[in-house]
Amino acid sequence: MLNQLLKKIIRTGVGRGRFIMAGIGLTIAMLLILSAVQIQVNYNELLYGKSNQDSIANFLVVAKVINGNNRENVLSTEEVERLKRQPFIEKVGLLTASRFKVSAQSPSDRFPFYTDMFFESVPDEFIDVKSDDWKWEPGSTTIPLIIPNQFLDLYNFGFAPSQNLMQLTQSMVMALPIVLNVSFQGQPIRFTGKVVGFSDRISSVLVPQNFLEMANKQFGTQGDVRPSRVVIRTNDPGNPELVKYLKDNGLVTDADKTRFSQYRRIVNTVVNASWLTGAVMLLFALLVFSLFIQLTIASTKNEINLLVTIGAAPKQLQRFLMKQFLPANIIITIACVVTITILQYVLQAFLLQQNMYVSQWISWYTLAAAVVILVVLWIVNYSTIKKYIRETEK
Amino acid sequence: MQIQLQQVVPVPLKEKFSQRPSDIWNTGITFHSGDWIKIVAPSGTGKTTLMNILYKVRHDYEGSVKWNNDDLRNISGDELARLRQQNVSVIFQDLRLFENLTARENIELNRVLQKPYYEAPVIDEMAASLGITHILHQRAGVCSYGEQQRIAIIRALVQPFEWLIMDEPFSHLDIANTKKAADLIAAECKKRSAGFVLTDLDEDSLFPYTQTFSL
């Protein structure tokens, strides 16, 4: 009953039209800020989501820029440690080079070749070849090798045609034993090499780590050599921070894999701009809403004054006014969340056609943002009402 | 509940009042619980000012007013509202009704501001006794002053109170209606063992006053 009477007294001052306008402003602002949150979540999901990831792109071989001034362009222990500390780098694997001379030759005259060569090794987790033969037992003279796919391409499409040699398939190469001669104190020590796989990731001739450790110790002719290259695993090779870090520290990597960082920066800017727009809009909407409340109170100042005079408690009036404004805020918030949910559902279906995967539901962050905004609205309403009731009282 | 006035002088009237003697201004005076007090004064001597000071509508005075030993200046907000709902009721000279509410709604509002002292039908009984049943559904703004005054009287009487403050409550009523209104007020005050402070221009014998003052 009291509320009905208060409604009759306080409603008289302000038009419904203004209330609706203020509500529309708030709705638009809230839609903007909630979509900004949801867009950010979708964007992150597209970048880091499991189903959107390209496993090859996540491993980068990083080396010092070769500028011709230094004889050696090696990474110091300190530089490697610094790499490990970067948030965008998950793991760092050192490429260990061989410190002995080795040559390879064909065992058969039907297919003659001879070359001086080198080995490198890297922890297994950085290798993209899965093979049961990729292991070396101490004492064994058979060495598994992984060579870059590019080597085979170079041979098949460049070298073989020019020399009138037959082109080789991967399985042919893997079937071919290779004689490896490691030179030790002037004497050759013979091993048998066997290619067990081809790597797209690391362009080097890889041998198992334990073999290289043993061989370096036993046959090594040079002292401790620091790594000239490392493999890093990152969750996001297009991360502009990573690209910037490498550039700032005189490091290079496969440019192809980091090319997207340029686009990423642009998209980042757009996403941030949508945040900013949403935030500014929300600020204005809060202002409009609080002005609306002030207007309501100011235009019924005499009535409120009289109510207080005959004994209405400020608390009663505040409670009543909150009841007038808060339901509208709650309805607007719910309507916005529902709208965003529908949009997300439509967006998910659309992106699926483009082979991009986002969740069909809105994120918890979006819901949390809606709740936070509602709380902020409550606080703004409450403090405005409290302040102006107190002022009216005087 | 006691009402105490200590050296109260309204600031705007200070010069004027310091030159002539008064029972109220610039003295110490106590209204005891249950007292029926009449304050007689000609126009322009500050009756309404006194009523507004007693009810804490005006603050521009020197000295102090105490409700139950609490200085009125220190009572505000929800605490003041609680006292106005439970302990002190008022009839203003300028009536102060909500023009957009009907007569009944004006009364009902003061009935339901706190836990109701009376059930709703009491409004009809009181309206009948003052002869305004026929205008209860009318907007207060279109009622005559005489009708509005009776609405204001009933409004003041539907709430609990220990003190009733009345500022020329019969100024728009004829003798017959004044008598009816005074009887109703007396009955309601007796029922609550409440006191009242009533101001008027002239002496009268409408109530068995316990004290009479002149401003």
Please give a structural write-up.
The complex is a heterodimer of chains A (about 400) and B (about 220). In chain A, strand 8 and strand 9 form a beta hairpin. Chain A is built from 12 helices and 11 strands. With about 400 residues, chain A is α+β, with helices and mostly antiparallel strands. The two termini of chain A are about 25 Å apart. Chain A has 2 domains: about 180 residues, no CATH class; about 200 residues, no CATH class. Chain A is about 55% helix and about 15% strand. In chain A, the strands form 3 sheets. A 5-stranded mixed sheet of chain A has the order 5-4-8-9-7. Chain B is of the alpha/beta class and about 220 residues long. Chain B has a single domain, classed as P-loop containing nucleotide triphosphate hydrolases (Rossmann fold, 3-Layer(aba) Sandwich). Chain B contains 7 helices and 9 strands. A 5-stranded parallel sheet of chain B has the order 6-7-8-3-9, with helices on both faces. In chain B, strands 2-1-4-5 form a 4-stranded antiparallel sheet, covered by helices on one side. The longest helix of chain B has 18 residues. The mean pLDDT of chain B is about 95. Chains A and B meet through helix 1, helix 10 and helix 11 of A and helix 3 and helix 4 of B.
Short structural description:
The complex is a heterodimer of chains A (394) and B (215). Chain A is of the alpha+beta class and 394 residues long.
Keywords:
heterodimer; A: 394 residues; alpha+beta; 2 domains; five-stranded mixed beta sheet; four-stranded antiparallel beta sheet; 12 helices; 11 strands; elongated; B: 215 residues; alpha/beta; Rossmann fold; five-stranded parallel beta sheet; 7 helices
